[in-house]
Design goal:
The protein contains two helices and six strands. The termini are far apart.
Length: 141
């Protein structure tokens, strides 16, 4: 009785290529799994070794800025909705319901009323009177 042993010569070139690719993919896949699980990105951070910064009580109080000194810029105009988006310097956001005048090249072009909607240093304001264009200056009364 004859027993056939596996010989490399019996595989066609196509079968050899498939086998080599299969072994390579298997090795790459197993190497990727050997790293272990990824750390949890949303786990709380241990801050015990961090330096503590002490802020004086007087520095914690908000600084009140006169409405006349606040100057913002119109960055977006939504004509059908009748509102504008204003950008102000950091820390100089006007209070809600404040009336601001819009100036274009030194000429008053309209009025806006600041709403409570705010994101960082951007504020939404309703157009009360006149017209607005991008680049107009919004100044407090």
């Amino acid at each position: 009785m004859r027993v056939d042993f596996y010989r490399l010569g019996t595989l066609t070139p196509w079968m050899r290529l498939v086998m080599v690719m299969f072994v390579a993919i298997l090795l790459l896949w197993s190497a990727g799994c050997a790293r272990g699980p990824e750390p949890d990105r949303f786990a709380p951070i241990d801050t015990s070794g961090w330096a503590q910064v002490h802020v004086a009580e007087s520095d914690r109080k908000p600084k009140v800025i006169s409405q006349e000194t606040i100057v913002g810029t119109v960055v977006k105009v939504h004509g059908p909705g009748g509102f504008v988006i204003l950008n102000f310097p950091p820390g100089q956001i006007p209070r809600p319901d404040a009336l601001l005048d819009l100036y274009r090249r030194g000429v008053k072009m309209g009025e806006v009323r600041v709403t409570a909607r705010q994101l960082d240093d951007y504020v939404v304001a309703d157009l009360v009177m006149g017209q607005a264009e991008m680049g107009d200056q919004a100044k407090g009364r």
